[in-house]
């Protein structure tokens, strides 16, 4: 871990059936390897099963931000 590493924030958007439409790193940790590991993990996600349709509808356009903290 790099000293003073900041949380990594990833913005994701889901479509019908919980399919991952897009992801974007919106806040870097300051450590390129940690940031890339989050991008690599997001790229492997094809869908998140069982997301309620109401959740998908509420956040489909704006997306949601997920914060990751490396310890």
Mean pLDDT figure: 93
H/E element sequence: EEHHE
Runs in which pLDDT lies below 50 for 5 or more consecutive residues are none
Structural class: alpha+beta
Please state the overall shape, judged from the principal axes of the Cα atoms. Answer: elongated
Through-space gap between termini = 7 Å
Strand order of the largest sheet: 2-1-3
The Rg value, from CA coordinates, equals 13 Å
Write up this protein.
- The structure is a single chain.
- The protein is α+β, with helices and mostly antiparallel strands.
- The chain is built from two helices and three strands, in the order ββααβ.
- Strands 2-1-3 form a three-stranded antiparallel β-sheet, covered by helices on one side.
- The longest helix is centred in the middle third of the chain and has 13 residues.
- The mean pLDDT is 93.
